[in-house]
Amino acid sequence: MITGSQNTDYARGLEGVVAAETRIGFVDGINGRLVYRGYNIEELAESSTFEEVSYLLLYGKLPTKSEFTNFTSKLNADNQINDQLFKILQECTKSSHPMSALRTAVSYLGAMDKNSNKFDLAAQEAMGLKLMGKFPSIVAAINRAQQGKPIIRSTEPNYTARFLEESFGKKPTEFETKVFRTALILHADHGMNASTFASMVTISTLSDMYSAVTSAIASLKGPLHGGANEQALDMLERIGTPKNADKVIAEMLEKKEKIMGFGHRVYKVYDPRAKILKGYAKKLAEDKGHTELFETAEEVEKVMINKLGTKGIFPNVDFYSGIVYKSLGFDPTLFTPIFALSRISGWFARSFEYLHDNRLFRPRSMYKGEVGPLKYIPIADRR
Ligand code: SDX
Questions:
Q1: The CATH number of the domain where 280 resides is what?
Q2: pTM
Q3: Ligand 1 mean position to 270 CA, how many Å?
Q4: Per-residue three-class SS string for 96-130
Q5: Predicted pLDDT at 6
Q6: How does pLDDT run across 97-131, given as a tens digit for each residue?
Q7: Ligand 1: residues within 6 Å at CB?
Q8: Domain residue limits at 257
Q9: Residue identifier of the C-alpha nearest atom 2 of ligand 1
């Protein structure tokens, strides 16, 4: 931190700044541990469901059977999108990235919900549940629209299975559902990451949950955040084979390019989520015949750890997720919307938690410009 002329502490990119208190999740960047409400991520990924984890994040405890039924029936009460929104998504996906379509969809739903002008906690909770319940259908519809295919409306109540069924028009296998559910659990929440922070900044103005999620999606889109998963796969496909990894990575680093899917603001060790995803990426790659892609990724990992491990740069969550999603049949442009399909629960939980003791986010910048006062010169007299 540098102390500036206005006697304010300055941390570039707010690095290391603690901006809120939370009971939701803990990212232990030194020991490579991720905890949701006291539970290790490995335990939840193995044993839980996405809905259960979302309940845990939102309400602070694992649900009883009846709490779970009540929660999922709220999520499913109005879980489809209408034809009008599907038409908009068809238009958007002709010209722009699916993340732009997703941002537009959430904004549209907010504009259509007359409760989005209510600011009380109950209204914010109802908006969040309604929006989250629609998310599988929104992201699946974007997938369909992008491929020029008709929308599929499934009555499947399970979040994961509904999304896969509405994306591909067939029931997923048990293993596909397990892998995808695990990926959703792993991505559900992660401290004050950029998109979560964006959602919290928006909600702190007492705006509505749709607006908070729209802000979050806009932030997740960038390649330094959620967009890295798509770029990481693109890089692996360009590298093509394990024997090219060393040369290509060396050239990229020489040009000061960032290697997508590596490094993290908080983790200075291996991201625990990446460890789990790596296992599934390997298994799926073998099942689907992408072994060379997986082996290339492993070689890139080896090269990167050799070169930059001492700087605390290791694979992050975005490195192996692309291989998992590709193996499940998704186009790379869907990878970041899939991240959002999961992170909606973290955005919602953290924004909702923050509202319980709200304080407007309003940091300052350190002014480095001319302090003047300069004399105003009319345009005609300026040289
Ligand atoms: C996510 O915050 C979260 O929790 C996010 C997330 C979540 O779940 O919400 O975990 C999801 O966004 C994961 C991150 C996805 N992004 C990428 O994979 C993009 C590539 N990675 C980076 O650009 C970078 O590592 C960041 C942006 C993720 C974090 O970087 P910082 O903390 O801003 O670090 P930095 O850019 O200042 O780098 C520090 C040093 C630099 O070298 P020096 O100038 O000190 O010599 O590390 C180097 C960087 O050049 N470095 C890398 C690198 N990441 C850092 N060098 C090459 N490739 C990289 N990926």
A1: 1.10.230.10
A2: 0.95
A3: 13
A4: CCHHHHHHHHHHHHHHHCHHHHCCCHHHHHHHHHH
A5: 56
A6: 999 999 999 999 999 999 999 989 999 999 999 99
A7: 190-191, 193, 224-225, 228, 258-266, 311, 313, 316-318
A8: 228-328
A9: 193
